[in-house]
Inverse folding.
């Protein structure tokens, strides 16, 4: 897999410095959970200060092509700290970590198939955008 090449400066451009710093702090705390990584972009679940996980999608081709489910993003349509945290985390993750993230959902799909669940593909698709469901499904792997 080729890692997505994010332009961090472009992501942070026009953003208040405080917001960039908060995003970097989220990344440092490990609050970014990479769900899907490909050369074209990334999908992550980012936990905020109230413990709510938001779904963040950033395209590697265009830094302004980013989405987040948090209220900040919904209100202003602006790149939020969760987008910063996600891009920062991808740039800070080694190849092995990115490979692991890239294969994460297909491993989950395989697992569900082995368990004989015929709703597996549908569950995986929902779990992409449902942090609690993803944790629950992957938790079954451990137990
Ligand atoms: Zn956000």
């Amino acid at each position: 897999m080729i890692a997505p090449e994010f332009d961090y400066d472009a992501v942070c451009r026009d953003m208040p410095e405080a917001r960039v710093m908060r995003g970097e702090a989220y990344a440092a705390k490990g609050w970014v959970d990479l769900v899907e990584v490909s050369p074209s972009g990334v999908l992550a679940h980012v936990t905020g200060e109230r413990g709510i996980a938001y779904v963040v999608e950033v395209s590697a081709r265009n830094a302004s092509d980013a989405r987040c489910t948090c209220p900040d993003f919904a209100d202003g349509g602006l790149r939020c700290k969760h987008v910063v945290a996600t891009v920062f985390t991808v740039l800070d993750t080694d190849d092995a970590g990115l490979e692991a993230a890239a294969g994460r959902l297909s491993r989950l799909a395989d697992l569900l198939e082995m368990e004989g669940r015929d709703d597996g593909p549908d569950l995986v698709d929902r779990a992409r955008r449902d942090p609690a469901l993803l944790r629950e499904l992957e938790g079954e792997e451990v137990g």
